[in-house]
Amino acid sequence: MTDPLLHIQRLRTSFKIKDDYYAAVDDVSLEVNKNEIVAIVGESGCGKSALAASITGLHNKERTKMDGRISFKNKDIANASINQLNQLRGSEIGMIFQDPLTALNPLMIIGEQIEETLMLHQKMSRQERKKRTVELLKEVGIPRAEQIYYQYPHQLSGGMRQRVVIAIAIANNPSLLIADEPTTALDVTIQSQILDLIRKLKDEMHAGIILITHDLGVVAEMADRVAVMYAGQIVEIAPVIELFDNPKHPYTRSLLQSVPSAFDKQERLYVIQGVVPPLPNLPREGCRFKSRIPWIPEEVHEKEPKMHEVGPGHFVRCTCYEDFHFIGEDGGMNHGAS
Amino acid sequence: MWTFTFRRVLIMIPQILLLSIVIFFLAKMMPGDALTGLIDPNIGPEAIEAQREKLGLNDPWHVQYWNWITNLFQGDLGQSFQHKLPVTEIINQRLWNTFWLSVLTLILTYLIAIPLGLISGRYNDTISDRIITGYTYIGFAAPVFIFALLMLFIFGFQLGWFPTGGSVTPGTVPGTWSFFLSKVYHMLLPALSMALITTVSTVQYLRSEIIDTKQKDFVLLARSKGVSETRIYRKHIFRNSLLPIAAFFGYEISGLIGGSIFIENIFSYPGIGQLFLSSLMQRDTSVVTALVLLFGIASILGTLISDLILSIVDPRIRMK
To answer: Which residue of B has its CA nearest to A97?
Structure first.
């Protein structure tokens, strides 16, 4: 078996709040292979964006502590210097951000913003750079690329700007693309166009893609594998079909339960009780999802929840999945599949 | 760009007209006129009344205003009774002194503010930031005239490094190199005293703007492109942080006018700030009116320059 493109092992990223460090990403291990889309899902504040930014060390160094290993193409990059990281960023690892309306420098023309990344990572003459930039704009589906080159971000729509952001991310043919909620700020038609574009890029460049989202529809449509995050940890990871057909962890099941269905019109949507606790108050011991399923007896949780393999490539954290049932259902009737 | 500039200049015409009306009425509302004081008491009231009639002081207001404004356009601002000279002549002598003093002050203000603001914003909450913000608080708290007196006392009188008054060494020939140097030498201490105080608000603006900008998404995107920190500050953060500073420029000019009144009096510098105060003390109405009008026009020009700078820096403003 070939080595994965990106291999994250037991990553913990902690942020400084006042004088203490709090882990926003805690004990996360994840592999991403070439030509694979791995989706990371979870509710707001679960640490998915913090995880994405950790990979290329984008956090403010003075307020962040990172432990664990991140190897990219068999090189450890968790402890890389800023210069080494700058060589990777934009060339080997491209990033797409959530809000295209704020992601571009308002005072720079589009062409200049794309050329900047070409200039930093490739030896090209001015003319070559411009030619490549116009090509990139066409590649991401921007019409009138020659004119758009000279325009400022405020002259473009949100969808167009997201295409520009994508053009920047893919300018140097990266082998890993990190897309942090690339469609959240866009309306549905534009969203599907952008997703089509990302899929096309995967097919053409054979890059590994990390797709961060909280939209399960996007996951079903795009991902090869899915990692579900809760409170800084991955609670379940599985191939996409397996996850939708056979979800194990109470959190995954609750998430899927709360998606409205077109066929089964319930009176009320399922709601997960409570909220994700803020970072300083996260439970550090035991099963982190415990407080949100209070009707499940204490004994079924593990003291120190570990990942359990329940199928090929399918892992679940904590033993509570075996005895989980939704409130109102009979616990005895709905025992785990194991 | 040119249509924007043209339209922006056009707007100034009604602004200046309105300003002149306000100033005219404020001057008229002051008690007394040119014939109330300093008149030989032996002259009978009939003669004074006849003179009033002759000078047009009994005309209705719009006729008086029209006479004043048409004279103004012909470059006639009236006579100064204190100096017994045409107002234009008196102002003209001093205007350039104040102009160059203000230019030097502005240059010094930005020479101080930009590096300090950059360091303070980039390395916020470090020792150097604390020292710089400490200085800005002192600057905010210290009144210009106290600080200027202190500077004059230390560097002018105690150490004797700078001249303590005037705008040029007597006897130097205008147009020569030594004349120019002497001018700059005389301006340096007043300009520095004013700049050190007025710069603090610009430092603070720049600091908070940089702290704000460096957390923006496009900076994160620039980092994700592999742009080095130095280049991020130079190409992405700095220019985006300059917008409020540019917007502040017009206000800065009105501040300079107010400041020049103190500074020129303290350093006995023959400019219009000094002239303004002495004319006010002497009730030299025609000079005061002319100067207030001049200050008003300077402020309007300041905002014009602000807007033009903004439109050069920010494409979003240019388009509208």
So the answer is: B221
